[in-house]
Design goal:
Shape: globular
Structural class: mainly alpha
Radius of gyration: 15 Å
Strand content: under 5%
Number of helices: 4
Length: 98
């Protein structure tokens, strides 16, 4: 693994945990909290599986990680518009204009 790939692989896991934690704490209802917990558990299972099996990030198992990250990021951005304000966080398209 080259240096840029290694840097990304080290920094994207803590960023995911931070994003998932914020989405969990900002969740308005129990259903959304369970969704974030399920996605986090799926990511943990995927990372544990990755310790025992070698696969590339572009292969089918590698795509699962990016899908989970995308779903959690989408939840985070949706909830951030309510908690941080749309203009502060760059979520202008996600906030209510009323």
């Amino acid at each position: 693994m080259r240096t840029p790939e290694h840097t990304i692989s080290i920094s994207d896991r803590p960023a995911f945990v931070r994003t998932a934690w914020r989405a969990y704490t900002w969740a308005p209802d129990e259903r959304t909290k369970l969704l974030v917990l399920g996605l986090g558990a799926g990511m943990l299972a995927h990372q544990i599986f990755g310790l025992t099996d070698a696969f590339l990030l572009g292969t089918k198992p590698g795509v699962v990680m990016w899908m989970i990250m995308g779903l959690v990021t989408g939840l985070y951005l949706n909830l951030a518009a309510d908690h941080l304000g749309a203009s502060e966080h760059g979520c202008a398209g996600l906030a209510d204009s009323s």
